[in-house]
């Protein structure tokens, strides 16, 4: 089973979709767009997607339907990107400088490239990541050169080393041209768009895809969507839909807590809410409801969502 979740531009879940387990990612996007437009009567839409979701068929559909998009481009596979976009001269504009703490946004620079025919690209650069990519590659090359001195034939089957090798009938050597080619991609990713957004806006909107990854982490871990013990399609769909509803409620709770200026760990929220209980007893002909003490984050959570906490003891009619 393949599960998809559609988010709005604020990261709020809109709906969920499910497909058979053998469905590839590239076959899911167009049907979802069609259902969104018919189900919610959406007139204006912008698709933000990574390169794994895109095929030639998808691109044709988006262009024909005049749907706005921001898509990750395949830098190494696309001839247009390799030979024209990455080779185009121009200055990068800084969006985020390198920060001094882990909480600072990742460093980001952008450069816009428009080709003949109107194809618009945005080249994004993270210089901190570029330095890491270069250092990682240099470490591989250093190890490769050492191993070439002892047992060069053993390197041929190693995927990590093989792309940096030049193989002849009798010799195995380091491929300097490949090293230089790989250096072109250090710290970069390329986006293709038909929107009127600025290059900075395009890059920042694409980076919001982290919210999708966070949603699936939440569904797998926090909400315990897996494992699924059902066998029928209907019950599996029901199970996933309940997880989606829980996800929606959690996101809304997060939003309201943030608006109220609170930042609580989800584990603490669950523990404190679970500890809040109420029992009923009979006393002298009256039915009384008695609740436990409101501890930890409970009071602030109820206040944030606008729900009054019932009295400690109250009579039930």
Would you report the number of β strands?
Answer: 13
Question: How do the SSEs run, as a string of H and E?
Answer: EEHEHEHEEEHHEEHEHHHHEEHE
What is the topology, as strand order, of the major beta sheet? 3-4-10-7-6-5
State the low-pLDDT regions, or none: none
Q: Can you summarize the main beta sheet? A: 6 strands, mixed
Query: What's the assembly state of these chains?
Result: single chain
Helix content: 40-55%
Strand content: 15-25%
Structure description:
This protein has helices at residues 29-39, 56-64, 79-85, 127-150, 159-162, 176-183, 199-207, 210-222, 233-259, 266-275, 298-305; strands at 2-7, 13-19, 46-49, 68-72, 93-96, 108-114, 120-125, 165-167, 172-174, 188-193, 278-283, 286-291, 313-315. It is an alpha+beta fold and 317 residues long. Among the domains are: 129-183, no CATH class; 268-315, no CATH class. It has a 6-stranded mixed beta sheet with strand order 3-4-10-7-6-5. A 3-stranded antiparallel beta sheet has the order 11-12-13, with no helix packed on it. Strands 1-2 form a two-stranded antiparallel ribbon. Strand 1 (2-7) and strand 2 (13-19) form a beta hairpin. Helix 9 (233-259) packs across helix 11 (298-305). The two termini are 48 Å apart.
Question: What order do the helices and strands come in, and which of them pair?
Answer:
Blueprint: E1 2-7, E2 13-19, H1 29-39, E3 46-49, H2 56-64, E4 68-72, H3 79-85, E5 93-96, E6 108-114, E7 120-125, H4 127-150, H5 159-162, E8 165-167, E9 172-174, H6 176-183, E10 188-193, H7 199-207, H8 210-222, H9 233-259, H10 266-275, E11 278-283, E12 286-291, H11 298-305, E13 313-315
Parallel strand pairs: 3-4
Antiparallel strand pairs: 1-2, 4-10, 5-6, 6-7, 7-10, 8-9, 11-12, 12-13
Helix pairs in contact: 9-11
